[in-house]
Amino acid sequence: MGLQEYKCPRCGGAIAFDSGAQKLKCPFCDTEFDMDFIKKYDEEIKNEGTDEFKWDTEAGSEWENGETAGMKSYTCRDCGGQIVADANTAVTKCPYCDKPVVISEQVSGMLKPDYVIPFKLDKEAAKEKFKKHFSGKKLLPRSFKDGNHIDEIKGIYVPFWLFDADVNANIRYEATKEDKWEDSDYEYERTDHFSVIRTGKIAFDKVPVDGSSKMDDKLMESLEPFSFKEAVPFSTGYLAGYYADKYDVDAATSAERANYRVKHSTEEEFLKTVTGYDDVDVVNSAIRLYNSEASYALYPVWLLNITWNQQKFTFAMNGQTGKFVGDLPMDKSLFWGYMFRTAGIVAAAAFAIQAAFHFFL
Q: Of the four, 36, 160, 276, 301, which is 20 to 30 A from 133 by CA?
């Protein structure tokens, strides 16, 4: 029969019984524990379980006869992007890389979306948002404000997989409280460690994950939120005058990103209930899904391709809410000038304080 080994809840080291203190003691961090506490703690660890993410990824539907008659597929030779648009749309360049596209007459290899959020904002709104995006940016090169060239502004429906699920969660946090005091001889510090457990349920509705490898996940997530309340059943009529990206990442693969978002959001929401501590960290979380399902939708996005100083910049705007995102160039000379001025002000303030200190001495 093997010996029972316990791990220190504080540092993870093996703890042993200290006959002098009549307690379990960790030889690595010198923390002492009552036997009843360690037994209860060890039992909780054994029953924590692990994550269980199982999604029903059946989403979208097959096209009915004649539904794709007014649609064409465009394939970019350069980046491989596959764009779908109505037959009357004059397409000359890829919305991702600005290179010429090849037109094929038939739409294939794509499921019919369940929902679509129609565009609410037009191209002029995207231009105005672009101007506001760089107004007030002190480190932006002046030549960018005056000399940037908008190559093209295109409205594109981005494919999104939407994940719904109810979640059972069991999360353990390690929390600490710090206390400091002093007397006439010494200064003291004490850190108390706590194991905090939260168990409960939470529901997720329409967690979006973009299904296009051409779209950066973080860029699309930065455009959120989209309001699904304005989504309608998909109809090809909504594509008139716009593009629609063909998904090339399926629902099963996209579920990995959904898992991360659900797990992270659950831990963050439960963390809000752990108060009164100086520091809190997640030690273990067991997230289990049930009533999970996925659906397929198209969300509206304006893409702006900008050329400046022989460089390409891509900006995006939420076609429903107007939220605008994109990285701007920085004038390094203005940056270093700002840093030197700031350092000079800090140095001058420090000198003034030192001078005043000597004066009062």
A: 160
User: Are 37 and 92 found together in one domain?
Assistant: no
- Checking DSSP bridges between strand 149-182 and strand 243-245, what pairing results, if any? parallel
Give the whole-angstrom CA distance, residue 258 versus residue 272: 21
- Counted residue by residue, the chain has a size of 361
CA distance 192 to 114: 53
Same domain, residue pair 79 and 42: no
Residue 27 lies in a domain: yes
CB 322 within 8 A of CB 129: yes
> What is the 3 state secondary structure string of 114-156?
CEECCCCCCHHHHHHHHHHHHCCCCCCCHHHHHHCEEEEEEEE
Task: For residue 114, give both structure tokens.
Answer: 């369940």
Q: Are residues 32 and 76 in the same domain?
A: no
Token pair 């996005």: residue = 301
Decide if 14 contacts 42 (C-beta within 8 A). no
Residues 82 and 164 in one domain: yes
Long-range CB contacts (within 8 A, 24+) of 128-135: 129/317, 129/322, 129/324, 130/304, 130/315, 130/317, 130/324, 132/324, 133/315, 133/324, 133/326, 133/328, 134/328
pLDDT tens digits for 167-198? 999 998 989 999 998 888 888 888 888 888 89
Q: How far apart are CA 286 and CA 50, in angstroms?
A: 5
CB 23, CB 43: distance < 8 Å = no
| Mean pLDDT per 10-residue segment, the chain (361 residues) | 59 67 71 70 66 75 66 70 64 66 57 91 90 73 65 87 93 90 87 88 94 85 93 86 84 91 92 92 89 93 82 88 83 50 51 47 44
Q: Token pair of 237, please? A: 């009529």
The burial class, CB within 10 Å (0-12 / 13-18 / 19+), for 325 is: middle
- CA atoms 92, 98, 101, 107: torsion sign: negative
Amino acid found at 306: I
Domain holding 157, by residue range, is: 71-169+196-336
Q: What is the Cα–Cα distance from 283 to 70, expressed in whole angstroms?
A: 54
